[in-house]
Amino acid sequence: MQMANLAQPPYETSLMGVVRGVFDHYGIEASTPWLYGATGHAFVVNIHVELCPSGPYCWNGDGWVRLLENLGVTRKAFGFFHAGSPSGERAKLEASVRDHLDRGVVCSHLNMDNQLISGYDDFGFTNCRPWGDCPVTPERLTYGSWDEFGEEIHVTFYAFERVAAVDERTQAKESLGYAADLWANPTNHTDEHYGMGPDGYANWLDAFDAGHGEHHGAWWNATVWSECRKMAAAYFSEISERFPDAADAALDLATRYGGIGDLLKRASDKEMAVDEKKVLVTQAFEAEREAVARIPMVLKGIG
């Protein structure tokens, strides 16, 4: 069994690649910047104290799910499984995923990364591979053993089902409210040892001082969060077109978030000296602080 018209594009933010695939499969029209922005993911920056590459994955996504529902899709978890999960629990999960796929419901899993499940046969599931032959995104998943995940099994399976969408004005307003809240109440949106928003930037800078600036996580966090800021810029450009009274303030933020994206993209250079990366991230931190403070002006224009 294979899901028709299902593909996961190679976005650095793999969760949003999953979402893009889900919306394309269901035929729901939304630009990629609107998906990033209206779900709030464009405004997330979550950093572990040691710049672990898990930053883009380990945060409280409840607000993100609520905003995703505004666009017409909800995500529900089948549950969390690990290497010690009994075979009976795995078999029950596998049967439930197959049932959802048979009913045309798109499913995914997150182990080391997010992947859409494209179908199944008698031996296991087949998965979308956004980055080709990448070891953390296996092409298959064998029933029972899940050997393709290797020694690290800490996986959650999800189903994405259609729900009624709200109007674009509500989508925009609630997403920008979420963006502001990520900054104002960062501890509500992430876990221990991680920082969201301003706490995330502070963790990032402290991690440079602690000697983590040349690790894999330094590159991966900068890569993912720079992409998100570029999408935030494009989202504000779309807001300026859809809500004329917000156009000037939105275009100002489009420029600001585009600049933040540029700074973080430069900081992703693996060959760059850590001190230079720290300067760029410091500049991005201050620029984002100023940008978030201007979100109320866009909200006022949206009405």
Total helical segments: 10
How much helix, percentage-wise, in residues? 40-55%
| Inertia-based shape | globular
Fraction of residues in β-strands: 5-15%
What's the total count of β strands?
A: 8
Q: Uncertain runs with pLDDT below 50, 5 residues or more?
A: none
Strand order of the largest sheet: 2-7-3-4-5-6
What profile does the largest beta sheet have?
6 strands, antiparallel
Oligomerization status of the protein chains:
single chain
How far is it from the N-terminal to the C-terminal residue, by CA? 47 Å
Our Rg estimate from Cα atoms comes to: 19 Å
The H/E string reads HHEHEHEEEEEHEHHHHH
Mean pLDDT rating: 97
Structural class, by secondary structure, is alpha+beta
Properties at a glance:
303 residues; globular
Topology diagram in text:
Layout: H1 14-26, H2 32-38, E1 46-48, H3 62-70, E2 73-82, H4 87-102, E3 106-110, E4 114-120, E5 124-127, E6 140-142, E7 154-162, H5 168-184, E8 194-196, H6 198-209, H7 216-242, H8 247-267, H9 274-293, H10 295-302
Antiparallel strand pairs: 1-8, 2-7, 3-4, 3-7, 4-5, 5-6
